[in-house]
Design goal:
190 residues, mainly alpha, two-stranded antiparallel sheet, elongated
Length: 190
């Protein structure tokens, strides 16, 4: 049986439960509860203390403000800067239902008449997209002549023992293929 079900049963039997200052479970009743119920309460004592403590713990003002802001589709800073809520409200209302406060704010003239973000017309976005485009040159977009020069040069470097590209040492054929590779334009002539 869960702690919530057990607490409900105890409440129905007239048992009041509280957590003392030192964290102990206190039971109070007008008449003696059944021994079965007392045994179950004792067995689930720690779960009941945790449930009662959680129910009595106040929500932090920051967490409460975040809930209200989320319900309104904005952020907490906007609510404070535009004076929809102030620091005193955070202290006084932090334990109340965030949905009720959000509904109150939605109904206020300050919220209804708040400045809205103005969306830019679509043609401005289209004009921005038509600005200069940059083409990235890669081996797949290169001209056929460049790809052929690249393949011949690389194949030669891989098979020639006299050529060593990192040090700039090439045989006569390797030097010719490197020069041809460097002189061939990558862009296609249209």
């Amino acid at each position: 049986m869960s702690a919530a079900e057990l607490m409900y049963r105890a409440s129905a039997a007239g048992v009041e439960m509280t957590v003392s200052q030192n964290g102990r479970l206190k039971l109070r009743a007008d008449f003696e509860p059944h021994a079965e119920l007392l045994a179950e309460l004792a067995a689930h004592k720690f779960e009941i203390i945790a449930a009662l403590s959680a129910a009595n713990d106040p929500i932090s003002p920051t967490a409460w403000l975040s809930r209200v802001a989320r319900l309104l589709g904005t952020n907490p800073v906007v609510l404070l800067k535009r004076a929809h809520l102030d620091e005193h409200d955070l202290v006084e209302l932090a334990g109340t239902d965030a949905a009720l406060v959000a509904d109150m704010i939605r109904a206020s003239p300050a919220w209804i008449n708040r400045p809205q973000r103005i969306e830019q017309p679509a043609e401005v976005h289209v004009a921005e997209q038509l600005e200069q485009q940059h083409t990235v040159q890669t081996a797949t977009t290169a001209s056929r002549a460049w790809r052929e020069a690249d393949v011949r040069y690389i194949n030669h470097l891989m098979s020639c023992r006299a050529c060593h590209a990192p040090t700039g040492r090439y045989c006569a054929l390797g030097d010719y293929l490197r020069q041809r590779y460097n002189d061939t334009p990558m862009e296609m002539n249209e």
